[in-house]
Design brief:
The chain starts with a helix and ends with a helix. It contains 13 helices and ten strands. The mean pLDDT is 96. 48% of the residues are buried. It is 52% helix and 15% strand. By secondary structure, it is an alpha+beta fold. The protein has three domains: 115 residues, Orthogonal Bundle (Butyryl-Coa Dehydrogenase, subunit A, domain 1); 107 residues, Beta Barrel (Butyryl-CoA Dehydrogenase, subunit A, domain 2); 148 residues, Butyryl-CoA Dehydrogenase, subunit A, domain 3 (Up-down Bundle), CATH 1.20.140.
Amino acid sequence: MTPDELREARSALVDTVARFARTEIAPHVTEWDTAGEFPRTLYRRAAELGLLGLGYPEEYGGTPAPLALRLPVWRALCRYGTSGGVQASLFSHNIGLPPVVLLARDDVRQAVVPPVLAGEQIAALAITEPGGGSDVAQLRTTARREGDDYVVNGEKTFITSGMRADWITLAVRTSEGKGAPGISLLLVPGDSKGLSRSRLDKMGWLCSDTAHLRFDDVRVPARYLLGEEGQGFKAIMANFNGERLGLAAGAIGYAEACLDEALAWAQQRQTFGQPLVAHQVIRHKLVDMRQRICATSAWLEDVAARGDAGESGGDWVAEVCTLKNQATQTMQFCADAGVQILGGMGFMRGTVCERIYREVKVVTIGGGTEEIMKELAARQWGFV
């Protein structure tokens, strides 16, 4: 694809996503947050537009696309849909499905991937455990081989789409001892006997179901092992890179949404006989917001281009980690500034800045906390 073709495809995709987000998501977000969920029909609608399959092989119903196309799509969805809850659940397959595409047996891929990309089924990723947090290497959920099955016991928590998922990509320990070598990945059908789910209440992402999962002697056919036993940790770490880039792109979109609302409010709100934007202190806040968005956007473009060129080494991974921090800090700054500019209205449910102000904390935590990102970057750059 030539640079001109890439720009044209990117512009067309962003326009499509913006229309979809403005008309089919944004008007309903407050209602969906109150209800605690959004309609499953939204998955099919997103699939019809080709959004769920973007970046996946054609043979499974997807559309191969570089990061240079995928990241702007996620950014536009967040900017114009203005709901982290919708984005997190609607695209939970982007963290749950890649290990299936890369590591599953062909018959399993053929059975699982097409229905998810068609919006008929939902995929989720289950890594985090109670008390475990970011220390993936110490996870305790076990999978013991018995004949043609694995028997799974343990718990997972903070699982996006955990209540509705038809397929759960699960991190388990398949050998005794501790540390990364004993970790494997299993694909667990959502209707498995012994799997129980409970909904978690949250500060934000109110329309996204987030669940605590419990596995009590859940029997999973051995054919659902993803890759080889003991090789799951490496796959999990590689999967995190894609998740963190998506979070960074989304964070920029949310920052832009805050700027959009704050600017519109400042232009029409009258104080002391003139528009709010006529006051220098307000203009400077808006400029500060834009400055951070532009700088972070340029970094995202660079990291994405290097990823599309095949970079995956330590330096690139370190930049992905620190970019994720930079983007979420930009989102946090813009949410805070937006609420301040809106004043009392910024404290009211139903405004974009209020929603994003509540949602920003989970973005600084999910996919790896700021502290973990810094530590990973320090190690990749050889600081320690």
